[in-house]
Amino acid sequence: MFRLSVLLTIGLAVSALAGTLSPEYYEWAGRIVGGQNAGTNQFPFQVSLRSAGNSHFCGGSIINNRYVLSAAHCTVGRTTGNTISVVGSIFLNSGGVSHATARIVNHPSYNGNTLANDVSLVQTASFITFNAAVQPIALGTNFVTGGGATASGWGQLGANVGIPNHLQFLNTQIITLADCRNRHSAINAQRIFDSTVCTLSPSGQGLCMGDSGGPLTQSGAVHGIVSWGIPCGLGMPDVFARVSSFVGWITANAV
């Protein structure tokens, strides 16, 4: 049986933009609150990033047969020997195929204080074999400003609630950057860049400390990478790295 290890708080991000840190600002480690159990093969692009000891630490998305897209704050400081990509299962304790890591590429402009450019690539040491349970997802190339979207990942279902073995998903709504900034505090609004995308869910639903790096999808493409938010399911916008802003960098490096 795989051992699941979840950091309830990865850590407070120290603000480079203000003298004091907003205490509500957290990197998402991305638990999905108020979500649903995923169906078999519903999210064949979903990846569980794990340590060498098989502890799940972040999510990711398959984008081709050698590369997984994730968040830089998940992979900065990690070694290839301590990073494994597990594909093809909606359960953490069974199934799936494990791939060792050949290379980790963090965005060169990633800022650990503000989480700007929170994007990374994990190159698998072996080719990912595609089948009904394992498929790549297209990169979102348009600048989305609204509409329904879906976030998926593993993690706790709520505060003081157990960790699900079953992959979770949440249907949510993309909102404009202006709306997102207006809903956040002045300090946190400075961390909402044009290269981020925000979603808003009703109170009791949303992302929380569980799986950073996981996908936000719309119309069959990945448009966001789980980055940060306000714990937990309190009706505040969740923030993602905007994939369309990084398509050039991703395609140039995922080869």
From TrEMBL:
SUPFAM superfamilies: Trypsin-like serine proteases. The keyword Disulfide bond applies. GO terms for biological process: proteolysis. It comes from the Eukaryota. GO terms for molecular function: serine-type endopeptidase activity. Keywords: Disulfide bond, Hydrolase, Protease, Serine protease. Belongs to the peptidase S1 family. CLIP subfamily. This is Uncharacterized protein. The lineage of its organism: Eukaryota, Metazoa, Ecdysozoa, Arthropoda, Hexapoda.
